[in-house]
Specification:
The chain has 321 residues and is of the alpha/beta class. Helices cover 31% and strands 24% of the residues. Strands 1, 2, 3, 4, 5, 6, 7 and 16 form an eight-stranded mixed sheet that branches. Strands 10-9-8-11-12-15-13-14 form an eight-stranded parallel sheet. The chain binds nicotinamide-adenine-dinucleotide.
Length: 321
């Protein structure tokens, strides 16, 4: 078994590699050659932790396995460890034998940022100039860094529930040489692309905060009950997702579906746009909305893309198992 430790991931996986792996696996899912297994997520009744498994099989990429992990809210204060903890396990699809164990924390941030970036590449207007951010936590910095590579953005505007966290994303914008401005939520109408990546259970982005022609990537809602945008925005938008089953049950679309504002058939796979079987954006004034719920196959794709490289570079440990 090949072990790739968490501390080596930064030196192995570039944003471009993560983007390519995620774009390929979304395409594969839409062709029916890759599928995710049902997600297991449990409150374990200890340390207030949420723990679970996201797995799948990609026959085109020959990636089989799972990501195990979750959220330990007291890690940072008690143990100096980050609250999100995960590990990816890959198995040989020919034999079922375990192939690799890969640190999953940075992988999660890079594959999540790659997902919204893939949506921006395929759905945002080519002339997008203003990038809007809602959220300024751990994931937001990765999201913004990757998004800024997708269009010639001239300005970043941002809002966060905890305004004291805004310097996190201002720093990313300034490192990319793009000016940053903090705005009220109403100021988001200026944005051509918006990413929301927060852990809120009540919508903060209202339908009239988003101008016609905007592409919005909703990345924070990955659990039943969470909600970042007003459900009526989904009725005004053309809605895309990584996986329809997750979008309507644990993603942003769960609320619009429950209130009858949209039907399951209104939620389209981003993979279909990548494969050319859905036209994607068809008008400059269309609002496109990507509901990025986060699927196990994204984790497997990025993990599988670095295992051989880790061995080549001598940073992996090989154990006889
Ligand atoms: P974090 O704790 O570092 O940041 C949380 C963010 O949410 C901050 O911007 C905070 O100000 C904001 N927030 C908290 N309470 C809020 C409220 N009541 N209203 C509005 N905003 C509020 O978390 P993170 O690691 O950056 O993760 C953000 C979200 O993304 C979480 O919900 C997480 O589960 C989700 N996530 C999704 C994926 C995916 O694949 N879609 C992957 C990883 C994380």
């Amino acid at each position: 078994m090949i072990i790739v430790p968490e501390k080596e991931i930064a030196g192995l996986l570039t944003r471009a590699d993560a983007f390519e792996a995620v774009e390929k696996v979304f395409a594969s899912m839409s062709k029916g050659s890759a599928y995710n297994f049902p997600v297991i997520r449990e409150a374990i009744g200890y340390e207030d932790a949420l723990y679970g498994f996201k797995g799948g099989f990609d026959k085109s990429g020959m990636a089989l396995g799972l990501k195990a992990g979750g959220y330990w809210p007291h890690n940072l204060e008690k143990h100096g460890e980050i609250n999100h903890q995960s590990t990816v396990f890959l198995f040989d699809p020919d034999t079922g034998k375990v192939k690799a164990m890969v640190g999953g924390n940075l992988l999660t941030a890079l594959r999540t940022a790659a997902a919204s970036s893939v949506s921006i590449k395929h759905l945002a207007r080519k002339d997008a100039k203003v990038m809007g951010m809602v959220g300024a936590g751990h994931q937001a910095t990765f999201q913004l860094r990757a998004a800024l590579e997708q269009r010639n953005f001239e300005k970043v505007i941002g809002w966060n529930y905890h305004p004291e966290m805004l310097p996190n994303i201002e720093k990313v914008a300034s490192e990319a040489g793009v000016p940053f401005e903090a705005v009220p939520l109403e100021g988001l109408v200026e944005a051509d692309v918006v990413i929301s990546i927060t852990s809120t259970f009540a919508p903060t982005i209202m339908a009239d905060h988003i101008a016609p022609g905007t592409h919005i990537a909703c990345m924070g809602t990955d659990t039943k009950g969470k909600q970042e945008v007003e459900a009526s925005l989904l009725a005004r938008a053309t809605v895309f997702t990584d996986e329809v089953a997750q979008s309507i049950s644990i993603g942003e679309a769960q609320h619009a579906i429950a209130s009858g504002l949209i039907a399951q058939s209104d939620v389209h796979e981003l993979g279909a746009v990548i494969n050319g079987t859905h036209p994607g954006r068809t008008r400059a004034d269309e609002i496109t909305l990507f509901d990025g719920t986060g699927v196990g196959l994204q984790d497997l794709a990025v993990a599988a893309s670095i295992v051989d490289l880790a061995v080549e570079k001598g940073v992996a440990t090989i154990v006889d198992f």
